Amino acid sequence: MLSTPFQKSPCSPLFILWLGIGEVSKVTIIALGVFFPVAMNTYSGVKNVDTLLIKVAVSFHAGWGYTMRNVVLPYALPMIFAGLRIAAGTALLLLVAAEMIAAEQGIGALILHYGDLMITERLMAGVIVLSVLGLIFNLFLQFLERKLVPWNRKD
Questions:
Q1: Euclidean distance between the first and final Cα of the chain, in Å?
Q2: 145-154 pLDDT, tens per residue?
């Protein structure tokens, strides 16, 4: 499984100490945790653009904005969506982890609470809800990718 810097480091508790137990710390942890998969996949997608395509655009005197919008972005979109799909799962994991550390409400806090009380039915219901949410996010991003990147179909 892919990991982010915040899943294996003590940064989450530090952010909670610095920013408090509120929503700001949770949003910061999630934003920084999902930034890296999206940024690295975007970088990889842009770096792997065929240089011949860029040379053709330059030879036809295309401007920087036109080249980015009509050559580089369409070529990089599949990798960007791959990063978004990884980030969606990571965001869900980080949200649950942040709720387990510093919240009294939310699915993560409920799972932790029911685990402490050994109420396995409700604990498993929370895990199933998280699994369904992850599946819904993934299906939505796949649908969005099919609509926005029709030239990359794998059917």
A1: 26
A2: 999 988 876 6
Q: What is the 3-state secondary structure (H, E, C) of the chain?
A: CCCCCCCCCCHHHHHHHHHCCCHHHHHHHHHHHHHHHHHHHHHHHHHCCCHHHHHHHHHCCCCHHHHHHHHHHHHHHHHHHHHHHHHHHHHHHHHHHHHHHHCCCCHHHHHHHHHHCCCHHHHHHHHHHHHHHHHHHHHHHHHHHHHHCHHHCCC
Rounded CA-CA distance 93/136 in Å is 14
pTM, full prediction = 0.77
Angle (CA) 112 117 119, round 5°:
90
Residues in the chain: 155
Q: Tell me the two tokens of residue 40.
A: 């690295």
